[in-house]
Design a protein that fits this description.
Strand content: under 5%
Order of helices and strands: HHHHHHHHHHHHHHHHHHHH
Shape: globular
Number of strands: 0
Distance between the termini: 40 Å
Amino acid sequence: MAFLVSSVYAISVTTDLHLTDRIHQFSKGAADKNIMLMIWIFIMAGAFAQSAKAMGAIDATVNLTLSVLPSQFLIGGIFLAACFISVSIGTSVGTIAALTPVAIGLAEHTGIDLAYMVAVVVGGSFFGDNLSFISDTTIAATTTQHCQMRDKFRVNILIVLPAALIVLGIYFVQGFSLNATAEIGPIEWVKVIPYLLVLITALLGMNVMAVLFLGLISTGLIGLCTDMTILGWFQAMGEGILGMSELIIVTLLAGGMLELIRHNGGIDFIIEKLTRHISGKRGAEFTIAALVSMANLCTANNTIAILTTGQLAHDISEKFSLNPKRVASILDTFSCLVQGLIPYGAQMLIAAGLAQISPASIIGHLYYPLCMGICAILAIIFRYPRRFSR
């Protein structure tokens, strides 16, 4: 509704065009090739994620990950599981939904504070949300900055991996005194194949549409060979696509609205005001980080925040000759930082709802988002990694 109201207002104040031409201009922005590419990817990603869930790939991946955990490394292992699963499936929400019930059971059997255990899952889920090739934040960030996903990954991993290793070390130290094991279901190895295919082909640089199509087909074939019917597969794909409908609608409205803002000189005005006192690349990057963070606080959706500020960030990056891979990384990292800490975000609400606790009780234990934010700020200050800062 916020984007609908903003779009209507943008159309109404574009007084230099007739109403029909205003709508045409709005539609031109919504139909931008980058906007349309994101929508096709969202459709494919939704179909793949839901069909993989229906086929049992999420449960298989969870069980496989948990099966290799030494009992004394239980907390660190759950964090690793959340990181791996979120990278594989490209969604923090899906990771939280899959692992939070496991975390609740572990907390009950080991005496670990429930909010702390849930926070381990939530924190790890944002590792993959930030890095995964099929994450909607990665898709939005790389598309708006016109760079390749694997290039953004190379920058991003160098910034956030130290944060993940630090947090993992903390969890291992804190959990070393535990002597408990998780109850693991049977591992169906064949059902992990779609996620492995998606990871490997994406890392090899295959086109993201081809990656998702390969994952979708492999999910269907494996599901049909196990316990899923073709009707069930089609139904799952349909549900997954419908699940992306809100994001698709917002993407279209944002594209049209931003085109009218550009037409009316709003983009140039904002850039001039924001960059008036910026003297170098550090200031430009901190401005982009602040923009996407503020947008995320207002929308409570990191993908929408990136879509809202992506074009503006691209214009700023061109003015100050910033590396687009680095800008995409900044957009994704700071949006995930804010999304991982706000109590009214979808991830926090789902985790708190499953555990039947207050979202506020989880925030105090969220080590990874805070550590990730510190590493991202230091990366801007010290121009790290150097080869992507020129």
